[in-house]
């Protein structure tokens, strides 16, 4: 009994010692942890911070698309490929076995180093135990897809050592087309940018993700994979109102005129009358070396004195108040008149004499407009200015991109108001507006008085699903009474039919609009510097005149080759853009039975060619023909008559040189090759000359040189 008690006592004693020692160990451990946290915590946190970091992952920025879905701006992923050759998990044996095939495939994929060079570099990096060895930068997705299947890399991230770092590059597939309107964002911060990119940055940018990275050597960091990693959320896509085809025409038409006149800069904007959707907007500026680039949005952001285009508003105010009518006679005298402290001249030497108000607008008489405004508003200028305000001409359009200034239309009593301010403003001086603001006013006239807000964005999509649409916004439901709007529309048609823009009248459709030629004021020297005056040429209007679908403004700043009037400088750009729109909108073409005086203009010149193709085109566009060819003859000569196209036989005798002059290139080559000739082509366009005389005998195999017109 005592023996058992003694054994129990010994066991309890031993257990007590163990418990005490364990308790002491736990106390020591607890106080050590407490000491590390309180006394050395900063040191360990700093060590952790030096070796690990959390970085943000940029999301894929949303696409910007044209109205038909084509890409205007898109983020393309690019990859940086590196290799961890010093990790414990890296399969050195596999690497040594497959180094030859890996080197050969890398050389073939990137074509930047030989297979031997790749092998030497990889072996050297593995010898140095490099943890972040660079294989290549700017690697495409397709290259990455192939690379993942290469020997060694196909073993995975750890055994194969493959490290992939992705970044996005913003690309514009159409280059400079609408570049400033599409815009960009600064990397220095969100919400800072220009164009659609800047205005819709929060929608396009998406939500950032995050990733844990570990320092491996030097200043290199490697993703480690962690539960705290968060995948980024892709940005939404934006569909704009831009029509790429019309944008291309506007860009090149403006570029040609700017080069032709050595102008400082220019802009053009095409807008849909009913909706305010901007189909094309181009801005070009001459660089120091003579090139033209899109580096500023003049259409939206540049205020200038509009010149004669403001005369429409001046006369609409007088018409609305009943002081004048379009048929009233006004004496413009000998082309020069004086107001206290100011002389005003008309463009015609000797003046226009007595003309109607409508005729005065058509020929853009400064004297007529200033006499009307001075007579009825000279003693009460506030009434005139307030009516400009009621037309919304003193407010920005609110277009959905940044950078639009408020129009400058001074008010009587302002600091800079003078005795001639009202007179000056009536014909386009001492006030400033942007091209888009002027266009919005003319668009309202085309839209029967309803002023709509210009817009560049139609809708927002997420992964192909519609998220939001942007409806048409009305700024002013009636800038004038229907009676005055009709008068304004008739006067604008008269400018093209009888007035300063008569050079734009011969079309298959009618244009209505107004020319503008304004002197440009220098802030320091006024309107004249070193005996030289600079001008702003413009044309603004809409088409078709009787059922307006599109409005358009073109401005050319400082044309320097003697011509500076709006009809001669800006008018051709307007016409080229309008012609393209008309040609690509079959629904705008009048039915044949409705055509009268326009019939002759609607019969086009055509090339001689393959009769079935020509007949198909003539039928599609309703062009009348007179077919005098044989039924079994496929090739015809075309002749333009007053109201139709005449088709006659074009014969190609066997074993004789065919006559292909006047044919298009494709048809001419086909005919010559079928005759056994070897064709050499010089130029492009229509065949104007051929080296072998028509109808001379040939054996086959002779060379024939076709010289083309170099235009279409």
CATH topology of the largest domain: Beta-lactamase
User: What number is the mean pLDDT?
Assistant: 85
CATH C-level label of the largest domain: Alpha Beta
**Computed Rg:** 38 Å
Please give the alpha-carbon distance between the first and last residues.
126 Å
Count of runs of 4 or more consecutive helical residues: 22
Major β-sheet profile = 7 strands, mixed
Structural class determined from secondary elements = alpha+beta
Give the overall form.
flat
CATH homologous superfamily placement of the largest domain? DD-peptidase/beta-lactamase superfamily
Whole-number total of structural domains? 4
User: Beta fraction of the residues?
Assistant: 15-25%
Low-confidence stretches: 592-601
The number of distinct β-strands equals: 33
Helix content: 25-40%
What would your notes on this structure say?
Strands 2, 3, 4, 5, 10, 21 and 22 form a seven-stranded mixed β-sheet that branches. It is built from 22 helices and 33 strands. About 1% of the residues have low confidence. Helix 9 runs antiparallel to helix 19, helix 11 crosses helix 13 and helix 11 packs across helix 17. The N and C termini lie far apart (126 Å). It is of the alpha+beta class and 712 residues long. The chain folds into four domains: 38 residues; 182 residues, Penicillin-binding protein 2a (Domain 2) (Alpha-Beta Complex), CATH 3.90.1310.10; 343 residues, DD-peptidase/beta-lactamase superfamily (Beta-lactamase, 3-Layer(aba) Sandwich), CATH 3.40.710; 110 residues, Trypsin Inhibitor V, Chain A (2-Layer Sandwich).
